Amino acid sequence: MRAIILVVFLALTTSCLAQDNDPNMGIIPAPSSVKKAKGKFMITPETSFLVDAPTQKAAIFLTNYLKKNGYNNTVVNANTMGRKPADVKNALMLLTNFKGNIPEEGYELKISGDQVVINGKGPGLFYGLQTLLQLIKEEKRGYASVPCGVITDAPRFAYRGMHLDVSRHFFSVDFIKKYIDVMAMYKLNNFHWHLTDDQGWRIEIKKYPKLTKVGSIRAQSKVGGYSGNNDGLFDNTSYSGFYTQDEIREVVNYAAERYINIVPEIEMPGHSMAAIAAYPILSCDPSKPYKVGENWGVYTDVYCPTDTTFRILSDILDEVMDLFPGKLIHIGGDECPKDAWKKSAFCQRLIADSALRDENGLQSYFIRRIERHLNASGRKMIGWDEILEGGLAPNADVMSWRGEEGGIAAAQLGHDVVMTPGSAGMYFDHAQSKSNQEPLSIGGFASLAHTYAYDPVPASLTPDQQKHIIGVQANLWTEYIATPAKAEYMLLPRMLALAEVAWSPLSAKNFNEFSARRIPGHLAMLESKGYNYRVPEVMGTSDTTLKGSDFKLELVAPVEGAKVYYTIDGYTPRETDLWYTEPLRITVPAGKAIELQSIIITPAGKRSNITKMTLDNSGK
Ligand code: ACM
What we know:
The chain is an alpha/beta fold. Helix content is about 25%, strand content about 20%. Strands 2, 3, 4, 5, 6, 7, 8 and 9 form an eight-stranded mixed sheet that branches. The longest helix is centred in the middle third of the chain and has 18 residues, at about 360-375.
């Protein structure tokens, strides 16, 4: 029997971000509307760069971009040059003073052979510039081209978030800035900074120095997967790190320059071992010895709802509010076991005296008291969906992580909601494939396709209730992520899918175009900027068996500039093996089977998982 199997993939060009055959010109997140046109705008040393609002963040970002990327052009104030911007040829301009209406955070970008014009205000102007930077193709130092077209764009959601846990593992200020940089490139606007947890307190609080002196240091860390108890293997190595208040201010400013708000999270009443180790008075039994968490999981010692605890937490939150100017303050609220409260005579008396239903009611009492403190300073509280249990605090926003149910219930009660369900690909600590070649992770599975497919607006809500879904976020918990390289591996490219979930209208989303036409150019660009990422597997082959004798196989690299290497001798493919350059024609003799193994290796040497395809002519 002869079988010819053709696996044909979208041909990828080597142009910048594969824009030639992508209706979205290679832009991620896909804009609301793109009209491609023929021709290019050429950036040369003669090109004028004009801005009508030189103090705008976009104008400053452009000035820095030109300096950093080897252009000698300067940015000129269009108001004082004596000519109308519209009359200047060979000009690239950022304009806030335009006719017509552009939605909040939206922009128009028009590229012709003569001019590039971005119209927008504040963040809109900035996002228009981010889109433009994705379209610029460097030709040589000081020269670049931009394909012609007209883009009109605005975000689907106001809250577009990315979270990072710095408690389980600490990440430097430089890394946080790099994380913020890549968020800004993809128009995300809220960085949820998970600053405290059982395994480390990472923010300097002047009034309570032991929070960092004691609480930022754990004696050792768990090795390998979570065992649920303390009998497993530990590394016998002390681990520490925290941010000073000056560093926090520096990061807040850095993010603000990129229109990124920071949502700080101070966990309570659970996930609080690090603070309790520093100040045992915060617990229900201050006579017990406590230490900063060394294992992962959930600890049963939690804050006790005493006046002393509320005074200390209020003092802490006052310093936090002083550092973080954003409206939202995250108080955690998740995974708070009630064991200590059940055993505590104080808690039981409080439940009775305050006519609370039970310990869930006490959790609500706790959260409501904290909410009053935040509201008194003009801030809004946000917490994980457990804050619904026992009754929601009156003004709180909810972050729905245990599926969408909590978010749906909160929206029905008229509360604003950020969707971040682990089950829908929003937990980036989950593995990106089911292959055993993936690194250790917490478990779970969130492929790029799964993350991309998420729609944060539940169909079960009425249109009015749907308005309470203010946005979407992905979370990066770091129990199993000890290095920047692994954090980036888990983040990218899934964060690009999140960006499209958060920004693009549903009508502009298309996973095939995203993964085959847009992603390859973006991965090459991210690599050139020094980011690590998960290299997708070779396209055109998979871990499967094909029956037949004659095969023609087209293999495609999912990263521009990367190479496909393969073996048919049963050995692990590497750069010393056969380099794929043209479609493979493989004939398998009758009664035999051949295993085609392939790998992607990128210009920087990053490697994909290996795919094994069996070409089987055994007749069985
Ligand atoms: C969470 O993942 N515990 C919010």
